[in-house]
Amino acid sequence: MILALASTAAVAVALRLDKEAELPPGIPPQPAAIVVDPQIDPVVATAPAPTPAGISRAIAPELRDPALGVLSGMISDSLTGEVLWSRNPDRPRIPASNDKVLSAAAVLEAMPHDARLTTTVVAGSNGQIILKGAGDPTLSAQPAGADTFYSEPARIADLAEQIKQAGIPVTSVAVDLSAFSGPTMDRTWDRRDIQGGDIAPIESLMVDGARLEPLDEYSPRSATPGIMAGEALAAALDVDAPVTEASAPAGDRVIAKVESAPLVTRVNDMLRHSDNVLAETLSIELSVHRGGPATLAAGVDAIEQVLSSTFPEQWKGTTLADASGISYANRTTPALLDAVMTAASGPSRPALRPMLDGLPIAAGTGTLADRFPVATTPGAGWVRAKTGTLTGVSSLTGIVQTIDGRVLSFALMSGGTSPADARPALDAVVGQLRECGCR
Q1: How would residue 274 be classed by pLDDT, with cut points 50, 70 and 90?
Q2: How many H helices and E strands in the chain?
Q3: Helices marked H in 72-206
Q4: For residue 375, with 0-12 CB atoms within 10 Å meaning exposed, 13-18 middle and 19 or more buried, which class applies?
Q5: What integer pLDDT is reported at residue 351 of this predicted model?
Q6: Is residue 355 within 8 Å of 105, Cβ to Cβ?
Q7: Residue 35 has pLDDT above 90, yes or no
Q8: Residue 96: which of 372, 424, 414, 315 has the closest Cα?
Q9: Is the pLDDT of residue 8 over 50?
Q10: Closest by Cα among 85, 175, 96 to 129
């Protein structure tokens, strides 16, 4: 039957190519072209709701795994907000990169989602130009058309082209890093993590997140990100003079400028790749938006102020040292993390909904790309979650759609065991939420 249909289609095409006026009797007319109309089907509000007893039964075997160490957590129904399971949900724990869930929520709740940052080049004197940072670490030194690590970034190449088009002779490049102030590293951070690729000094001018290898997520970072950015512009302009720091002159005669991707795009890049540098700069952007200082400490204060007023009941027990989660001094609770995720996936806080797009997909994207293996763990493709890992700390916060079509939020915080052991154990717990109707 399939071969017959294929033969018929071939005859129809041949006849059309030969420009026959009419098809022979019995030959069906050419079918209409297929129109692709991709859609996302929303979950049905009437999908069967799991019960607390059903959830407990479903995950009980996985909870006995000693690899989970000391486990705290909460699971809720996103639609109703009902708590379906919890274990020490108000106990403050080290969140690791689950801290980024809080940072993303604060930024999306308090700022316009289409906000952009503008990096400028200002004319100095004697042929010097000054590259002035605005706090955008996604600015890329990659050539025009080349791949970039971040989504839709501004490019040094575009700045260089504008300068060339303006016909301005350039003898040297300087950088203005004055948009940020205060320490560039939190006192709880380890400077060895710069070479390790986890962090860089947080300056207002960076390219490619200060990565020495711009497309490598785990690349070592530059210890002088601003100078590195200036060197990228100098190279694009074939200027050999050393790059220095300078203050842009009064009046700011801008000769070139580029804009970052919208805020929501940068937030989702931060979540998907668990990008520490981007998390810290977003927090400073939040502080400045609210009229505060452009410092690391003020960024943390801004997150705390937004979330403590947005989730006052669940805020108790949370103290933050940074916006990225690399500090062991951070503390938060499963109750707060789950409340944020319930709000993002339910009807109560639509401003938080876009963060769901940035959450890594199990066995698919970001930091979950190599987790939830299809052959052994349910949940691949159905779980979206933010990972968190430090030595002896493993966290997982996100959402999962049950086999009956109900969306559940969850926050699981494990400690005291190796992340290599704890992560599969956490995945197994969440996988059971996908498989069960839990009624």
Answers
A1: very high
A2: 13, 10
A3: 99-110, 156-166, 192-196
A4: exposed
A5: 98
A6: yes
A7: no
A8: 414
A9: no
A10: 175
